[in-house]
Structures are given as structure tokens and as C-alpha cells.
């Protein structure tokens, strides 16, 4: 219990959060983050207000999918960029040795850096909640769907954050850690997307084979049209 309390009341967390939240870069990043999502949402809604407008429930579902996809895309870039320099940046500024000679353990320093980076990214995620609430105006999306998507967002931030911090510990240059972290994040994103598409294609073939074996053979054997 005492160790858990000490891990949460970490002076590195307080210092990092004050530095992040009080800087103009954080304000610009939050504003740009929300601006990009708002532009995407408004542009999508304008596109849907034509003569061939879909049902409102379909518009809500499509808006939800678009916002979720773009937010996940932003997470893939912002999370590594905000955490990859936690340790390598200290080494490059030659302040890592100063942290090591304090009474804080190495684990406390690394843990504090991770918590501060994750907290900032969680702030960005929850700042988009007002935009996601627009989908309830159209219907088709339940609150539990939004909760499930935000659980995926938080899990993605945790995975990318810990991976980026691990890379930051192994590297000595800020640029190197950021480049490697971005490459790993993109690899994970593309890999998971391809696996999801492959599983969906396989499930579709299994469904067709189950209810129509002849049609299922056609799905597997018919070559694509030239």
C-alpha cells in the first residue's frame, strides 16, 4: 500500500505535468487536435446533407466510425511523439545524470515519466468526447459503443506509451527514439489493420460456406474480373 501510494505521489509526475500543461506547445497541440477532429466531423456532415442523404441512424453510425478511425490515427502519431523523448531527451540535454544522483530510484523516474506522458494523452482523448456526443443526435450508436471505443483508445495509448518509453531508454538521441517509435507505431497500426481485414474476409467466407456451400466454392475459386 505504501509503495503504491509512493508510486502515485511521484515528484517527477508533478514536475512533468506542470511543464507540459503550462507550455504553449501543449495548448497548440490540444487546439490542433480538436480542430482536426472538428473539421473532419463538420466536413462529413456537410457531405451528408446532399439530395441523396442517408437515414439519420446511418449518418450517426458513419460519423462515429469516421471519428473513431481518425482519432486512432492521431493517437498513432501523437503518443510516440509525446513519450519517446522522456529518457533520451534527458540524456541529450545531459540532465539524466542529475536525476540519477537524486534520492529517487531509477524506477521512480521512469514510472513518473510514463505516468506524465500517459496523462497528457488521456487528456487529449477525453477532450474529444464532446465531438463524439454528436453521434447521439442522429441515433444508431449506443453509449456502450462509445465506451468500447474509448477502452480501445486507452489500451492503444498504454501500448504505444510503454513501447515508446522502452525505446527511449535504449536510445541516446531524441530524434532516433522518435523515429523508431513512429516506425513501430505505424507497423503495429498497419499490421493490426491488415489482420482485421483478413479475419473479416475469412469470416465472410465461412459464413457463405455455412449457408451456401456452392456459393462458398464460388467465392474461393472464381478469379477476379479483369
What features would you describe in this structure?
Residues 212-222 have low confidence and may be disordered. The protein has one domain (2-221). The protein has 12 helices and no strands. The termini are far apart. The longest helix has 38 residues, at 174-211. It is mainly α and 226 residues long.
How large is the radius of gyration?
A: 22 Å
Name the shape in a single word: elongated
**Helical content (DSSP H or I, runs of 4+):** over 70%
The sequence of SSEs as H and E is: HHHHHHHHHHHH
Mean pLDDT, all residues? 81
Q: How many strands, what sense, and barrel or not for the largest sheet?
A: none
> What is the total domain count?
1
Low-confidence stretches: 212-222
DSSP, total strands? 0
Structural class: mainly alpha
β-strand amount? under 5%
Number of helical segments? 12
CA-CA gap between termini: 67 Å
Q: Nutshell version of this structure?
A:
This protein has 226 residues and is mostly helical.
Strand and helix layout:
Elements: H1 2-8, H2 11-22, H3 24-47, H4 56-83, H5 85-92, H6 96-100, H7 106-127, H8 129-132, H9 135-138, H10 143-170, H11 174-211, H12 213-221
Write out key terms for the chains shown.
single chain; 226 residues; mainly alpha; 12 helices; 84% helix
